[in-house]
Amino acid sequence: MSRITVVGGGTMGNGIAQVFATSGDEVVLIDVSPECLDRAVARIGKSLDRIVKKERMTAEEAETVKKRIRPTTELEEAAGSTLVIEAVPERLDLKRDLLKRLDGVVGPETILASNTSSISITALGAATGRPDKVIGMHFMNPVPVMKLVEVIRGQDTSKETTAAVIAAAEALGKVAIPAQDYPGFVSNRVLMPMINEAIQCLMEGVADREGIDGIMKLGMNHPMGPLTLADFIGLDVCLHILEVLYEGFGDPKYRPCALLKRMVAAGHLGRKTGRGFYEYD
Ligand code: CAA
After folding, report:
1. Residue 13 alpha carbon to ligand 1 centre in Å
2. What domains sit in the chain, N to C, each tagged with a CATH number?
C-alpha cells in the first residue's frame, strides 16, 4: 500500500482514483472546487455500486474503498505521495502550470505522471526540474473496466521511472504497454483516424449512423461502433486529438472531418451534452 495523488476529478480522474483505492492505496483526490469533488465522489460511488451489484465486491469492501479516497482542494496535500497523476483538462498551459506547481510541492523522489491523451510528455517534463521523473500514464475510459495503461516515455524520462510506473499499473491488474512520445502515441494515432473516417463516411452518406456502427461492430467485432465511441469519448476531445495529430505530423491524412468540426461548433459533444451522433437521456 502506498499513497498516491490524483489531480482532476473528471471522468478519467475519478476512475483512476477508484482503481488505486480498490487495489489498497490511500488516494488524495484534488480538484478546484468542493462541487467538482462531490461530483467525483458520487461517480465513484455509482461505479462501485455497479461492481457490488455484479457481486465482484461486497458493500463493506466498497465502503472501505471509498474511505481510502480523501478529496481536497489543496494542492499541497500531494506532498508525501510516491506517485502523482494529473488528469486535468487537455490544455498544455494548464498542465504545464500544474506540473510546475507540483514540482515545488512534492518530494524529489515523487513521479509526476500525466493521463494526457495527446499532449507531449517531453513538453510537460520540461516544465519541471525533474523531466526524468515525468511520464505519461494513459488510462482508457471506463478506467475500472479497461485493461490497458499506455505508458509514454518523454525525451528524458528515466528507465527507473518507466519501470516504477509499469509496476504501479500492473499492481492495479492492468496491462502496461510502453510507447514513445510522438503525437497521439499509439492509441489515439490509430483510433482517431478510424473515427474521423467514420464521420467522413456519414458526411458523404456512404451509410447512416446505425449502418456505419453496425458494420464496424459486427464486421470487426468492436464493442462499440466508431460513432458511438466518438460520442462516448466526447466529440471535442476527438477534434482536439485530431488537431494535435494534424499539427504534429503536418500530414493531411489527420485533417479533422468538417462534420466533426460542425458538431463541436454546435455544442453537440456526445454523451456529456445529451447529443452527438446519437441522442442520450
Ligand atoms: N465502472 C464499473 N464497471 C463498469 C463501468 C464503470 N464505469 N462501465 C461498465 N462497467 C462494467 C459493467 O458493469 C459490465 O460488467 P460485466 O462484464 O460484469 O457485466 C461491463 O463493464 C460491460 O458493461 P455493460 O454491460 O454496461 O455494457 P457493454 O457490454 O456495452 O460495455 C463498455 C461497455 C465496457 C464501455 C464497452 O462498450 C467497451 O469496451 N467500449 C469501448 C470502450 C473504449 O474503446 N474505450 C477507450 C476509449 S479511448 C480512451 O479512453 C482514450 C483516449 O485518449 C480518447
Report:
1. 16
2. 3-180 (3.40.50.720), 188-271 (1.10.1040.10)
